[in-house]
Design goal:
Glycerol uptake facilitator protein; single chain; mainly alpha; about 70% helix
Length: about 250
């Protein structure tokens, strides 16, 4: 019993801390870029925003992927859980960590440069279009994430680069329309410190990514072709939790 009381909190804290820090960085980077574009020498173009977003994701995956599997996105966590590649009991903990990381990042940028930067507000048009657009962008992201992160046929060095470049692609495509969020935690932080327009549109950045991530995860599981090709590491958290539970009841 004493072992379980020591091991379980430490294990969960480390994973949640990794999700908090990773999400903090991937939100801080593009929001800070948006806030500093008025300064001399800054680049406020869509390309720079896409590159900064993708590079932030890439570096955080390599930094924390071995600790928390580097979700950094509530929609990605949901997608993994739906197809049983992630334990449901960990989902709320990851969501809280990701959301707090995004809020902290947006809040810190606001303290430095003023609030209201890096928000996601769709261009005028039907909400259904915006939801579908975010769903498609997230579908692409989740397809790459679940394929490179869970399939043993993919070399270990590939996930960070592949996922980071997918983020760059999605932001380039979606930036002019919805901002290319794909991530409820990315959109929530800035929206909380912005005005009504960003806050009233936030639900789009929850519904769209959730639909896209779940659809992509289900589809990839259907076409994967061989369950034996699933990386054992993707279920290491579930195995660890079950092991801890066994110790507690043993």
């Amino acid at each position: 019993m004493a072992v379980s009381q020591i091991v379980q909190p430490n294990t969960n804290i480390q994973r949640c801390a990794a999700e908090f820090i990773g999400t903090f960085v991937i939100v801080f980077a593009p929001v800070a870029l948006s806030a500093t574009k008025r300064y001399a020498g800054a680049d406020g173009s869509l390309l720079s925003a896409a590159l900064v977003s993708g590079l932030a994701v890439l570096t955080m995956i390599y930094a924390f992927g071995h600790i928390s599997s580097a979700h950094f996105n509530p929609a990605v966590t949901l997608g993994f859980a739906v197809v049983r590649r992630f334990p449901w009991k960990m989902v709320p903990w990851y969501w809280v960590s990701q959301v707090l990381g995004g809020i902290a990042a947006a809040g810190l940028v606001g303290m430095f440069f003023g609030f209201g930067h890096g928000t996601h507000v769709p261009v005028p048009g039907p909400a259904l279009r915006d939801i579908a657009f975010e769903a498609i962008l997230t579908f692409l992201l989740m397809t790459v994430v679940i394929s490179v992160a869970t399939d043993t046929r993919v070399p270990n060095s590939v996930p960070g680069l592949a996922i980071g470049m997918t983020v760059v692609l999605d932001v380039l495509i979606g930036g002019p329309v919805t901002g290319g969020s794909m991530n409820p935690a990315r959109s929530l932080g800035p929206a909380l410190f912005a005005g009504h327009a960003a806050q009233s549109a936030y639900w789009i950045y929850v519904v769209g990514p959730a639909i896209g991530a779940v659809s992509a995860a289900l589809l990839y599981e259907a076409v994967r072709g061989n369950e034996r090709k699933v990386s054992a590491g993707q279920n290491d958290m579930l195995d660890a939790l079950q092991d801890i539970s066994g110790r507690a009841t043993g």
